[in-house]
Amino acid sequence: RKEVEQDPGPFNVPEGATVAFNCTYSNSASQSFFWYRQDCRKEPKLLMSVYSSGNEDGRFTAQLNRASQYISLLIRDSKLSDSATYLCVVAPLGTYKYIFGTGTRLKVLA
Amino acid sequence: DTEVTQTPKHLVMGMTNKKSLKCEQHMGHRAMYWYKQKAKKPPELMFVYSYEKLSINESVPSRFSPECPNSSLLNLHLHALQPEDSALYLCASSQANGGAEAFFGQGTRLTVV
Predict the structure, then answer these.
(1) Which of A5, A105, A109, B52 could lock onto A10 through a cystine, CB 3.0 to 4.6 A?
(2) What is the dihedral angle through the alpha carbons of A37, A64, A23, B101, rounded to the nearest 10 degrees?
């Protein structure tokens, strides 16, 4: 089983739609969780950290479920500019080994 | 300022060449990373420096040689690379408390011919 698993997609959604991605992780010692966004041939950019209490940033909401070992990202009112690959990243406590999921590709259609 | 700067942006090198990739950050981060990313794959960790000391080497071949001259700079020296080493090389930095948010540079797109 991979340490961090994501559905690779692609998710093709119309503008204005709500879309959700899940990511599961296998190491229960994991302590830090992030969503990164990566555009084609660009670097990963931090979208948001994921906290136990959940967090929201505009149209984006991230949640963590430690019992079931998954994190989620919800995007409301999708824009064309949201088209990208979304990478789930997990870091065990006290290490520098950020573990990347394979990414979920999102395409928002006009 | 959450900027990590990498140079060059593009590099083409022959298998007998020696070249270096450079990375700089001024966020006061004491952990710096090199990642390699192939097309349609996630980044793979190569090296981690913490407080200017090499703390992780993910069994990277010796033709890749990292160097951390000071807390703001990270280099990756390349020698005798193979065509399969062609990839996007990403530098990142973070606070040195393990599991902090990491910020990536724009990357160097390397082609080995």
Answers:
(1) A105
(2) 40
Distant-in-sequence, close-in-space partners of B62: CB < 8 Å, separation ≥ 6? none
Chain B residue with the nearest C-alpha to that of A87: B42
Question: Which pLDDT belongs to residue A52?
Answer: 85
Cβ of B33 under 8 Å from any chain A Cβ? yes
Residue of A nearest to B106 (CA): A43
**Residue A94, class by beta-carbon neighbours within 10 Å (0-12 exposed, 13-18 middle, 19+ buried)?**
exposed
- Cβ of residue B27 closer than 8 Å to a chain A Cβ: no
Structure tokens at B51: 């407080």
- Mean pLDDT for A48-76 is 94
**Could you report the per-residue pLDDT of B19-76, keeping only the tens digit for each?**
999 999 999 999 999 999 999 999 999 999 999 999 999 999 999 999 999 999 999 9
CB pair distance less than 8 Å for B41 and A45: no
SS3 category, A82 = helix
Residue B105 to residue B36: CA distance in whole angstroms: 12
Q: Which residues of B touch A101 (CB under 8 A)?
A: 42
Using 50, 70 and 90 to split pLDDT, how confident is the model at B2?
low
